[in-house]
From TrEMBL:
Pfam families: Ras. It catalyses: GTP + H2O = GDP + phosphate + H(+). GO terms for molecular function: G protein activity; GTP binding. The gene is Rergl_1. It comes from Drymodes brunneopygia. This is small monomeric GTPase.
Amino acid sequence: AALTVRFLTRRFIGEYGDMAEFIYSHSLTVDGREILLHIWDVPNSQQAEDGSSEEKRIQWADSFVLVYSICDRASFNILPLKIQFIKAAKEGQSQEKVPIVIVGNKRDLHHQRVVSSEEGRLLALSLDCGFYEVSAAE
């Protein structure tokens, strides 16, 4: 949620409490063209629910940004299974590669890091995904 809010508003909010999922709409100009984005932000706690809800989200989306905390090994460890699920659902229907980006958040908390940048890069490379490390706070 912090990363989505930062992207949409350029502001950082540190504490969110219990978050529900939201769909945000945002337009921006890229290479002179106006692009309308719809972002379905799903907190990790809600991603563990039944497969039909997750399947619905996957079918709805054209691309995926999966965010983990560099300070939370568990949030990183679930990514391979999530990505395999997405690819099976999306690429099974067509021959097109589904755009997936892995984002390590909380780069500013390097003193609490438990997942190295190299681990993130290697995972993204092995799963044919993009990779970035960011800080929503910065």
